[in-house]
Amino acid sequence: MSRYHDEFRRSIDQPEAFWAEQAKRIPWFTPPSTILTRDEGDHARWFQDGELNLCHAALDHHVAQGRGDQPAIYWDSPVTGAKRTLTYREMRDEVAHFAGALQALGVEKGDRVVIYMPMVPEALVAMYACARLGAVHSVVFGGFAPHELAVRIEDAEPRVVVAASCGVEVDRVLPYKPIVDQAIAQSAHKPEACVILQREQLRADLGAAIDHDWATLVASAEPADCVAVKGTDPLYILYTSGTTGKPKGVVRDTGGYGVALHYSMEVIYDMAPGEVFFSASDVGWVVGHSYIVYAPLLRGCTTVVYEGKPVRTPDAGAFWRLISEYRVKSFFTAPTAFRAIKKEDPDARLLEQYDISCLKALFLAGERLDPPTFHWLDDLLDVPVIDHWWQTETGWPIAANLQGLAPMPTKAGSATVPVPGFDVQILDREGQPEGPMEQGSVVIKQPLPPGCLAGIWRDPQRFHAAYMAAFPGYYLTGDGGYVDEEGYLFIMGRTDDVINVAGHRLSTGEMEEVVGGHPAVAECAVIGIHDHLKGQVPVGLVIPKDGFEGDEVTLENELIALVREQIGPIACFKQVLVVDRLPKTRSGKILRKLLRNIADGQAYGVPSTIDDPASLQDVHEAMKAREVGAAHDARQQ
Ligand code: COA
Ligand code: AMP
Domain named Acetyl-coenzyme A synthetase N-terminal: which ranges (predicted)? Predict the structure, then answer.
């Protein structure tokens, strides 16, 4: 514990000295002399005058250091039956050629490139190619619908869009090109070029004037060199759900991110160069950006890129097979994946087929590791089962059990302790510190450590309003939680309208905008309710307009289809209830927390501000009749 305390205190008391030391662990073209500066909003910026290139640090540097023949990527795709290994040298060469292809299309330092790809090695090649040129990538998860892609294209204004012809799910091939075409048609901003990786499962028609075939472009491209960028120059924009309909473009800088990821690979994940790291996520999420793409290669490790699911590809033993086959040392996924495995293979019979003695730690994040899943894993495995907490904005863990620094006993339900650099505090509504065991808003005192968001793309006001305004001097995480007497941190859930479905962050406000846009809907609320598998799922409660004469089932189905069409299947919006009234305060605010408590079968008090107490009974009965929430959950367990 004292090793942790010493390191933590130093990171908080002398942040500049601490991070200047860590910065030496990655290769710079020009090492930074300015370590910490503050922007106009008093937000921390790191390593402003240093010059580097993250593609160089992750690939060229390792080739130069003699790692050229070491695998950089193990790609494993049970959905297509393919496997492929790329060494560091092969990866560097593919990236340099694709960067040359992008350059030939006019992409320069600072330009944006939107990437819409499944879990194929070329997704990583495209990301690194952007980094090589100093261009800013914005990867959009494949489960998002054309509208969501259009919103991101319009906001990021990319010069080029890079996509694959299709994604492959468990039982079907999903065409991507029509989604890209529709998104470009919907967006006011038009990219100059669209590069398509043709996959043999479904080739796309490249008929439009802006379309280019990946392979043809690369065949004639000259390899491009790494372009030096400043420590504070942007590496990527990653959109995430906020509380409104418009996603937030989280901007990540280059130098601070590289330093933080490298540090995390050592102290949190205990990874040494040459070892294998497997993060079962998707390049479309922050976990994918940080711990599939950048961190493992910055550290000289091998990363496993998995195009498959925890179950059904072909069975619930998939993760055990991958760990054993690739000799994975640290494995990282979302708790929901293990809930799915546990459901199909409750006694973990499939694990008996595999030797997973290589595994030294299992990390979980994306949502709280619920105690039943923690205990199931803890009983099953001989290695530490570690919940760690972070978010798209921070880019790396805020709280964890630091395996490479000072492993601590785990506690079910806790993400253990703040990672060095993160001065985590719990505040009450008035901004006063809470005592041990008292729940409040979880905030981080400025300066945030390197690696965290630089801002919201072209929207400093939104950045300030969303994160800095609530408690001056502190970054608002949006999560609620408490610290116990031993300093262990417990994150208990969001305090805003963001929900977490199967480890994916979604905005109920955005779904409400879509549902409320249906001509028959007068009023609606979308809430996140407990789900035994996905953690939470959204449920819509809808009041039709006066005079609505259609049938309710048709309306419900239309609303489900609308959300799928506008946001995408990943929203998992599958339940809508038509009700006569919704519980509201006298000032007209819908009592969403109360609705959640009713759905989850939790005790609730009736607030004195409620306008029409009988509305509660209405909602209660509608949920019971349709087995929404607790009733449904009970039947599934
Ligand atoms: N492209 C297109 N569609 C996609 C997609 C992609 N990349 N990923 C998911 N979808 C679709 C699915 O096909 C599904 O559509 P459907 O409603 O037509 O069936 C929908 O989006 C929901 O997908 P998913 O959440 O994956 O649900 P599932 O029931 O297929 O699988 C789990 C359940 C638990 C196995 C799955 O959610 C899972 O693997 N979760 C782990 C999540 C994770 O790793 N998160 C990373 C954060 S750390
Ligand atoms: P995302 O930005 O998609 O990574 O989602 C971040 C949000 O997921 C956080 O603000 C939390 O609400 C939740 N989350 C992620 N990891 C954890 C965890 N280990 N424990 C509790 N909540 C978590």
Answer: 4-58
Q: By alpha-carbon position, which residue is closest to atom 6 of ligand 1?
A: 143
Could you report the per-residue pLDDT of 369-398, keeping only the tens digit for each?
999 999 999 999 999 999 999 999 999 999
- Ligand of minimum distance to the alpha carbon of 395: 2
Atom of ligand 2 nearest to the CA of 492: 21
Q: Which atom of ligand 2 is least distant from the CA of 364?
A: 19
Amino acid at 91: M
User: Does any ligand 1 atom lie closer than 6 A to the CB of residue 158?
Assistant: no
Q: How far is the CA of 247 from the centre of ligand 2 (A)?
A: 16
- DSSP calls for 570-633: GG---EEEE-S---BBTTS-B-HHHHHHHHTT---PPPTTBS-THHHHHHHHHHHHTT-THHHH
Q: Is the pLDDT of residue 423 over 70?
A: yes
Query: What is the pLDDT confidence band of residue 635, given thresholds at 50, 70 and 90?
Result: low
Residue 309 Cβ contacting ligand 1 at under 6 Å: yes
Mean of per-residue pLDDT scores for the chain: 95
Query: Which pLDDT score, from 0 to 100, does residue 637 have?
Result: 55
Secondary structure in 3-state letters for 463-474:
HHHHHHCCCCCE
Percent of the chain at pLDDT exceeding 70: 99
Mean pLDDT of 596-618: 86
For the chain, list the domains and their CATH numbers.
Answer: 2-308+388-482 (3.40.50.12780), 502-636 (3.30.300.30)
